[in-house]
Design the sequence.
């Protein structure tokens, strides 16, 4: 009897492989965070190992990406050592028809925004379940906040009409702590009508480091889907 293959895992694998195929020899590559990008990192490592590509360096967007890159043999560098990023590959929690995103499900959106926005080509990898008509309809908006400002920031977000919740750890008592040592507030908005404006408004609250709205940053969205039991990848 053959084991059932998880369709979501299959979509993530295929879209990760398709994104890894876009990486060319001699390039600087932004390495995103999350379970979908993890496959892309794995396949970039495979292509390096097989000699299909050479001389690439990665810039990780999180501790997780750094650990995976090391595991799969991708040499790493930092933003201090380079003057550009050729391509960045990263996941998303929601993608709207204008290729605007909500990110931060892995609490890594601050570093992700730095790296993804710097890239000459930013490739988003998602399964089809992440496509939405309107941002905020299925996923709460993550906001990274410095710990001493958590109470006033949550109050300010509530005044904007959002419902903020402090993200709590799983298998860790207390709040999630980001790679920068900060906390994350997940905010429910009834409707995000103007993502560009909300991105700026939230970042203007003293104590907010960065929020998970990525507006006008994406170049390419690769979507993984399973049709009749077979995985396929298309560009949105
Ligand atoms: O923004 C992120 C991390 O901060 C991730 O890219 C996003 O949460 C998608 O993750 P996954 O591919 O595991 O669904």
Sequence:
């Amino acid at each position: 009897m053959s084991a059932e293959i998880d369709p979501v895992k299959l979509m993530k694998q295929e879209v990760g492989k398709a994104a890894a195929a876009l990486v060319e020899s001699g390039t600087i590559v932004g390495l995103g965070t999350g379970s979908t990008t993890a496959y892309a990192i794995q396949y970039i490592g495979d292509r390096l190992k097989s000699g299909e590509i050479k001389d690439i360096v990665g810039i990780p967007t999180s501790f997780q990406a750094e650990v995976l890159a090391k595991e799969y043999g991708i040499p790493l560098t930092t933003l201090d050592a380079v003057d550009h990023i050729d391509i960045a590959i990263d996941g998303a929690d929601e993608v709207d028809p204008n290729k605007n995103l909500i990110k931060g499900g892995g609490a890594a959106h601050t570093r992700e925004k730095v790296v993804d926005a710097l890239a000459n080509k930013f490739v988003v990898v998602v399964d089809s379940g992440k496509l939405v008509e309107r941002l905020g309809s299925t996923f709460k908006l993550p906001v990274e906040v410095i710990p001493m400002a958590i109470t006033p920031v949550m109050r300010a977000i509530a005044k904007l009409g959002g419902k903020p919740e402090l993200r709590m750890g799983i298998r860790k008592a207390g709040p999630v702590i980001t790679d920068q040592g900060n906390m994350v507030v997940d905010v429910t908005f009834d409707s995000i009508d103007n993502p560009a404006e909300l991105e700026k408004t939230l970042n203007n609250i003293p104590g907010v480091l960065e929020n998970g709205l990525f507006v006008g940053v994406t170049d390419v969205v690769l979507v993984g889907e399973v049709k009749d039991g077979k995985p396929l990848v298309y560009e949105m």
User: Anything to note?
Assistant: Residues 32-36, 90-93, 103-109, 112 surround ribulose-5-phosphate (CB under 6 Å). The first helix runs from residue 7 to 20. The chain has two domains: 7-132+216-235, 141-211.
